[in-house]
Amino acid sequence: MDSGYPGAGDLLSIEVTGGPSETVITLSGELDLSSVGPLQKKVDEVVAGEPDTVVFDLSDLNFLDSTGIGLLVRTSGRIDSIKIRNPSPFVRQIIQMMGLAGALPIEP
After folding, report:
1. Which partner for 7 in 38, 48, 58, 108 could form a disulfide, CB atoms 3.0-4.6 Å apart?
2. Contact by Cβ (8 Å): 71, 56
3. DSSP secondary structure code for residue 18 in this structure
4. What is the pLDDT of residues 88-105, one digit of tens each?
5. Is there a contact between 43 and 24 (Cβ–Cβ < 8 Å)?
């Protein structure tokens, strides 16, 4: 388990749990241009392990901009299965308004 990732600052907390069948990346705070770099590094590490499914738990993510959406969409193209778990109403609305619910399936 990784509790926070150095370099993300106070804006974003990243926690990775799980194993080869399902890896969960839990994000809290704000995912934007200033915080996407450390997350990209962590996602690269996770994807290199070739998990069956990557789940992004966004229940505590309160802001998401286009750089964050871009990272999620690019990640969906690199793995067989991606899920978005428990997005806040704000984040859910962004994903749905951009027509990305097919590429980024949402779990309640």
Report:
1. 38
2. no
3. E
4. 998 999 999 999 999 999
5. no
Q: Measured between alpha carbons, how far is residue 25 from residues 13, 28, 55, 61, 98 in Å?
A: 10, 10, 6, 12, 22
Q: For the chain, what's the residue count?
A: 108
Q: Are residues 65 and 33 in contact, defined by beta-carbon separation less than 8 angstroms?
A: yes
Contact 28, 60 (CB under 8 A): yes
Residue 107 CA to residue 56 CA, distance in Å, equals 10
Could you give all domains of the chain from N- to C-terminal order, each with its CATH number? 2-107 (3.30.750.24)
The model carries a pTM of: 0.88
Q: Which amino acid is at 93?
A: Q
pLDDT of residue 70: 96
Burial class (CB in 10 A: 0-12, 13-18, 19+), 104: buried
Quote the CA–CA distance of 108 and 105 in Å, as a whole number: 10
